[in-house]
Amino acid sequence: MGRGLNKVMVIGNMGRDPEMRYTPSGKPVTSFSLASSRSWTTPDGERREETEWFNVVAWGGLAEICNQKLFKSQQVYVEGRLQTRSWEDDNGHRHFRTEVVASDMIILGPRNKYKSDSDNNNNHKDHSKSDDYQSNPVDHLEKEY
Hints:
The protein is mainly beta and 145 residues long. The protein is 12% helix and 46% strand. The chain has 3 helices and 6 strands; from the N terminus they run ββββαββαα. A hairpin with a 5-residue loop joins β5 and β6. The two termini are 23 Å apart.
């Protein structure tokens, strides 16, 4: 059987502030939602727009960075893989949730919640810089998921 590929790249706006918690063993995990929109024109000339929502989970050092640096409405690039979890509720109903397990994150919008885009115009466009907003998945993510 051949080797598979499970890779997701999303650019979107934060739907809410991130929420960080810790596993019983003390490992940090942060979750947040991203909204990514696309627009097109129909053959009749009508303009349409569609928004897709992604649930994102980050672990370890990346979880801590996401919790510290991200905020609602900020534009973010997230790279990772899809993972579907399932569980059974108290009534015996089976539930499923598909998430992006983040391995990398780059802030594209303002890095400060209280500054406008124009104040950050020269800072947030340079993606080639290696700084603490980017994360190496080997260094920061734990392999238990």
